[in-house]
Specification:
- By secondary structure, this protein is mainly beta.
- It folds into two domains: 74 residues, Immunoglobulin-like (Sandwich); 156 residues, Immunoglobulin-like.
- The protein is built from one helix and 23 strands.
- Strands 10, 11, 13, 14, 18 and 22 form a six-stranded mixed sheet that branches.
- Strand 15 and strand 16 form a beta hairpin.
- 33% of the residues are buried.
Length: 278
């Protein structure tokens, strides 16, 4: 019986020792694990609905971010990713989106809205005919910024378009549709130009008279537009503060399309409406 008692005690002590080692007790110096660091904040973009507005007009700012809380300054405006925020700057303002995570790391994105200090405005009358036409985008245009959509009722399988436009820069100059754009032309809703090395080119400075662009589908397949008035491209013009009121020259001087099954580009006619500086 004595021998059995000793074995029983030894067994309990062995279990306790094992538990103490596993829990970091009995001897001190046990390590402690640190919680994982939170992901870094990401400020993907801050996009203005209109790059330029007239005094008294409003536009929007749309932030896109993740891994943190967003605030837009000036104004300390709380931001929700993907939700447009109305703003009405009275002077040209650069807005900053600051995204902060739980440990205080920050990321930023910016957008500038230009307030035109003039009463000059642009008016545009859409053309009433033509397979390819420049039509006013009323939701994006303001009194001094005219945004035009290139629409088509063509029924062919299109894989690309190129065009050159001229205007009178003493009355209206080319503008970016959105302040965050890299070019003076936006791709429309028809062509998938690709994210990596997109087939997309424009050549323009805002003070020049001529705008040239090439937009094409990534890959060989053409896109059926089926007479749907699909938007191929988008451009914008800004009223010149010092311009003389009157009709503005807005002329498509050359345009071509790529049609599936035809090796060479086909010439087309793009019809523009009547543009006036008031």
């Amino acid at each position: 019986m004595k021998q059995l008692h000793h074995r029983f005690c030894f067994g309990i002590l062995g279990i306790l020792t094992t538990l103490m080692i596993a829990c970091g007790g009995g001897g001190g110096g046990g390590g402690s694990s640190q919680p994982p660091a939170p992901p870094a904040p990401i400020a993907t973009s801050l996009t203005a609905g209109a790059a330029s507005i007239s005094p008294g007009d409003s536009t929007t700012l749309t932030p896109v971010f993740s891994n943190g809380t967003g605030v837009i300054t000036p104004g300390n405006i709380p931001a929700t990713s993907g939700t447009a925020i109305p703003v009405s700057p009275t002077t040209t303002t650069t807005y900053t989106l600051t995204v902060t995570n739980s440990v205080g790391l920050t990321a930023i994105a910016t957008a500038t809205i230009t307030v035109i200090s003039t009463t000059k405005t642009l008016s545009y009358v859409d053309p009433t005919s033509g397979t390819y036409r420049w039509i006013k985008n009323s939701s994006l245009s303001t009194s001094s910024l005219l945004v035009l959509d290139l629409v088509t009722t063509d029924s062919q399988l299109l894989s690309g378009i190129a065009f050159t436009m001229t205007t009178d820069p003493t009355k209206a100059g080319w503008s970016k549709v959105n302040s965050s754009d890299n070019m003076f032309v936006q791709n429309g809703t028809v062509f998938n130009i690709g994210a990596s090395t997109p087939i997309f080119y424009s050549n323009q400075a805002s003070s020049n008279a001529t705008l040239t662009a090439v937009i094409a589908q990534k890959g060989a397949s053409g896109i059926p537009v089926n007479g749907s008035s699909a938007v191929l491209a988008r451009i914008a013009l800004l009223a010149n503060n010092s311009g003389t009121a009157g009709t503005i020259n807005l002329t498509p001087i050359r345009a071509q399309i790529n049609v599936q099954g035809i090796s060479n580009p086909s010439n087309i006619t793009i019809t523009a409406g009547t543009l006036t500086l008031n």
